[in-house]
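Predict structure. Chain length: 231.
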Amino acid sequence: MARLLLIEDDLTIRTPLIRALRERGHAVAAASTAMAGLRDALEDRPDLVVLDLGLPDLDGRELLRMLRAVSSVPVIVATARDDETEIVRVLDAGADDYVVKPFTAAQLDARVRAVLRRGPAGADGQDPALVVGGLRVDPRARQVTLDGVAVELTPREFDLLHHLAGRPGQVVTKRELLTEVWQIPYGGADKTVDVHLSWLRRKLGENAQQPRYLHTVRGVGVRLEAPAVRS
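Prediction complete.
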């Protein structure tokens, strides 16, 4: 049973959605304002948050930024806004998925289950940390260290690095990164990947001209590999 927090101000949507999700086996709590939702997310620590953007006291995207500053709880944005630019902004702000109203409870339930399957804990309960050279990526704690020193990353930067660290030495295309990390199965947002790679390189103490871990393969994608050991 997943513990869900639904942040939705429209009673005609909130009530039937709570009922339908509970019928599908979830424990569902709800909040009708952004600040109440933030308080409940921090105090109750749900497994996943379903967030509407059109809240009465604060735009949902601003709430998402506030939540991401203090928590890595998975967030599915559920809203009537269907503009592609808005979707990209919300995903870049840290949302794990985005569903456009109107949608059925079955559709939302499927997305909830898909996002939770991508959770950080390994199925065997063992340490799932990935190590590439001096870089250690721990998805359970969502922590990264480089040569033993902690590296502070945003949730999206962490997800990007974790995806690459799981494929050391392989060239990963921007299309794959958009699909698997940003959950955007369409084109037009390659710049999003470029910007996040630039931020990630800076935090790893390198740049595109002098790469150590992140190597751009022009026209294809990016490859993460350990620096060569100098004799």
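Summary: Confidence is low (pLDDT under 50) at residues 121-127.
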